Amino acid sequence: MAYADDVENEELHEPTSFISKYVWSQDHKVIAIQYSTTAILVGLVALVLSGMMRMQIGFPGSIDMDATAYYQAMTMHGMIMVIYLLTAIFLGGFGNYLIPLMVGARDMVFPYVNMLSYWFYLVSVLVLLASFFVPGGPTGAGWTLYPPQAITAGTPGSEWGIILMLVSLIIFIIAATMGGLNYVTTVLQARTHGMTMFRMPLTVWGIFVATILALLAFPALFVSGLMMLLDKTIGTSFFMPDMMQFGSQLDYSGGSPILFQHLFWFFGHPEVYIVALPAFGLVSDLISVHARRSIFGYRMMVWAIVSIGVLSFVVWAHHMYVSGMNPYFGFFFATTTLVIAVPTALKVYNWLLTLWRGNIHLTVPMLFSLAFIVTFLVGGLTGLFLGNVVVDIPLSDTYFVVAHFHMVMGVAPILVVFGSIYHWYPKITGRMLHDGIGKLHFWITFLGTYLIYFPMHYLGFLGMPRRYYAYEDYPFIPDSAQSLNAFITVVAIVVGISQLLFLFNLAYSYFKGAPSGGNPWRATSLEWLTPETPPKHGNWGPSLPVVHRWAYDYGVPGAVLDYVPQTTSAEEVPVHENDHDE
Amino acid sequence: MLTQTTSVPFAASPGYFDQRSASAKTGLHLLMAAMSSMFFLFLLSYILRSQVSDWEALSEPWQPLAQTGQLWFNTALLVVASISLELARRSIRQPERGHSRELLMLAGLSSIGFLVGQLVFWNFLTTRGFFADSNPANAFFFLLTGLHAVHLVGGLVAWIVATVRLERERREPTEEGLALTRLSVELCATYWHFLLVVWMLLFALLSSSPGTYAAIAKFCGLGD
């Protein structure tokens, strides 16, 4: 590959001052940490908001929260978790850290644009958080921001909150596009000697395909956000229909709220996979390393990722069954939705078959990976319920839906985020995270999230509607539902507070953790083979690594070690003396 | 340490620009793909919205787009910009850089001319009372032409970089400078062709008749 030959001769401008090294840094590893730290911090805000909502539901009136504040908390919680935490940490965090290291590049191909991407992201977060301090507070329109209510008086934050939300999203999309151009181009153009596309770890494949989805799907959010912003600020009628408000005719006419829903979900559904595909990739690598087994069906896994990515663009209207549509459309979208189950199930089977007869080490990353598989399975199976029009309609807008999407794209990806941080933290800092605290954190989080979300399926079947501020005086909701809600709240608070264990572990281990060495998990992929840990600027020292094999050579028959790094050629593999004939 | 062991004179890595230019081209293609997604979704929204009864197409005989002379003039300017960048891209490969300097200047000036022309037309619309909020067709006109203009302004930043590089290379010719200049001009040419195609699509759509919108909507399954 021409790239590798040439880039070795490239002059490296190692940053010298504190500012250029840690603040205005163009190093992908620093940018990754900036992205992740910001995402986790803003995620904590969203976590606190969810705790407040749970207090109101479980113990009504126990905290000073009115309906307005409840809707604002709900909206900000959803938007922050989906966009500003999960999307940012998977693409901006893991994508930035791992892509160049895993493909053997010195950095992203456009480091300056990469740096701008982070700073735009930070501005988008600050604009979003600023909406807590404007008159009327943040928007309470629900994270889907459906017009006309999102920009009409009566909805919390319809004065300034919604404007800041839309501006923040537009800035975020610019940031994601700048980052996305980098991730995809780096994968396509900056792989080292011998690193073919089909030798890349599945982590890279997941992030690569997710980024392509982001580049094509985020424009839909941009388009809808910009048009709604104009409806709000200069009085256009893209989405706003003829409306009466407090007895007087508003100055809008003819706009189509359904058009917004189509645009939003044309972004919104691929967004699920923008979060899920990197999680699929990361968890594949965690399972393979910690079960000491080559990944089962590598090519099948790659094609599953690609086909899920393609299919994710033709299922969006399954979020709109209750909005009303031609029955043939419902049939089409239900069919495509169920078809996605095929490549997804393939992936689950392949993870299981990778574990089959593996030398499973129940390390913290492995525990999180196993938890991911079962959680994702539960979330995926309830997706089959909701993908069918006839089943969806009675369950729509109930707690069944809340349980479904929290399992499948809330808890499942977050488990992968945790597992991956436990796995790669030694490379980032040179120290291991504390195992005992890690296991405690795992069990509380895993069991806790099940105790929170599993009963919600039942509440959904009872008909408990979602997005309600209070559930008193609804004859169809039995009293026992309130007991369950109180139980869920208690567990949610415990799980929420237990995340402090994780933060403590991050801080404690940074100073006191056991030194990890360069490759504590005895893994094969390139990021574990850097000359220094943590990797220095330029990653590879004087010469780039040369790749001879795929990233999953664990338990190669006849080899002395149970893993063969990607940089080891066939001749260099140490083999048992008496195995030569095999 | 790292810097010392890997630092070599620039000329020692002749293939460096192959990689750099391949990356830059891939990046630009991806950017154009994302922009295409955006404009495509705007156009779909446009068609869908045009089927509501309050839509007053700007192309009706009594509406401002019945006479498209100004917009044709603007289009001609953008065509000139695109062609001159293409010629600049070719001539910069010639031994004495051909007329690349003049062509690059022409491209920039005609692009600025295009932007001014668009502003003149915006002014024409507003002075006749066609504001963004008076009809969705107007709103789309301002929105789409505005977004196209913003992307062209972004292109002009790249054009300034190309111009500066060309000037620097003329004064102190180096292999590095030449390769960078060529790359810049090449990327500008590709981007301008793309923006020209986008503009022609926008122009065609914005000035079409309501019958055309109805036909497209029906074809896409969006109409009644």
TrEMBL record, chain A:
GO biological process terms held by the UniProt record: aerobic respiration; electron transport coupled proton transport; respiratory electron transport chain
Residue spans crossing the bilayer: 32-53, 74-99, 119-141, 162-184, 204-230, 301-322, 328-352, 364-387, 399-422, 442-464, 484-508
Family: Belongs to the heme-copper respiratory oxidase family.
Recorded topology in the membrane: Multi-pass membrane protein
Start and end residues of each Cytochrome oxidase subunit I profile domain: 18-548
GO cellular component: membrane
Subcellular localization, as worded in the UniProt entry: Membrane
Domain of life: Bacteria
Record keywords: Electron transport, Heme, Iron, Membrane, Metal-binding, Respiratory chain, Transmembrane, Transmembrane helix, Transport
Molecular function via GO: cytochrome-c oxidase activity; heme binding
Protein name: Cytochrome C oxidase
Annotated InterPro entries: Cyt_c_oxase-like_su1_dom, Cyt_c_oxase-like_su1_sf, Cyt_C_Oxase_1, Cyt_c_Oxase_su1_BS
Pfam family, any one: COX1
Coiled coil: none
UniProt cross-references to PROSITE patterns, sorted A to Z: COX1 (PS50855), COX1_CUB (PS00077)
